[in-house]
Amino acid sequence: MKPPAILGLVGSLGVGKSVLARAIGEGAGVGVTMPSPSFNLMFRYEAGEGREVVHLDLYRIESPDDLWELGWDELGVENEIIIVEWPEQAFGLMPPDHWLIYLTMIPETIELRDVRVQKVGSPKNELSVSPISSSEC
């Protein structure tokens, strides 16, 4: 994926949003451990080819003012891949052009997830999505 890109990860607690965010970061060239930003709310990482991955967790956001304090209006510059966990907590302030990735637990299995991708507006990049079987996990 080439920046700029904004991805919203949607799903219940424990479904694997942070795991997916780490995989996206690794694929973008982040070479360090990416902890969940649950308590810090936002982490920035240098990635390959001059890119930067910005990982946000909005679960604890209480008002739009909290977003502005994070520098929300400065996100999405040309070299950034923005990953937002809990985008539904953004008080309707997600950029008009982004992707939503829905993760759902599959009943009676702990290892598998149903993943659905929704294009919102007209993001600059297309996502390459292909199904995988459980044997590939």
Summarize the structure.
The protein has 137 residues and is an alpha/beta fold.
Tags for this entry?
single chain; 137 residues; Rossmann fold; 6-stranded mixed sheet
Characterise this structure.
Strands 2-3-4-1-5-6 form a six-stranded mixed sheet, with helices on one face. The radius of gyration is 15 Å and the shape is globular. Helices cover 13% and strands 28% of the residues. By secondary structure, it is of the alpha/beta class. Helix 2 (64-69) links the parallel strand 3 and strand 4 (80-85). The chain has one domain: 3-Layer(aba) Sandwich (Rossmann fold), CATH 3.40.50.300.
Distance between the termini: 21 Å
Percent of residues in helices comes to 10-25%
CATH superfamily: P-loop containing nucleotide triphosphate hydrolases
Order of helices and strands: EHEEHEEE
Report the principal-axis shape.
Answer: globular
Number of helices: 2
Taking the sheet with the most strands, its summary is: 6 strands, mixed
Summed up, the domain count is 1
Question: Uncertain regions: pLDDT < 50 for 5+ in a row?
Answer: 133-137
Q: In the CATH hierarchy, what is the architecture at level 2?
A: 3-Layer(aba) Sandwich
Question: Quick check: average pLDDT?
Answer: 87
Annotated CATH topology: Rossmann fold
Helices and strands: which structural class? alpha/beta
Percentage of residues in strands: 25-35%
Neighbour order of strands in the largest sheet: 2-3-4-1-5-6
Cα-atom radius of gyration: 15 Å
Oligomeric state of this protein:
single chain
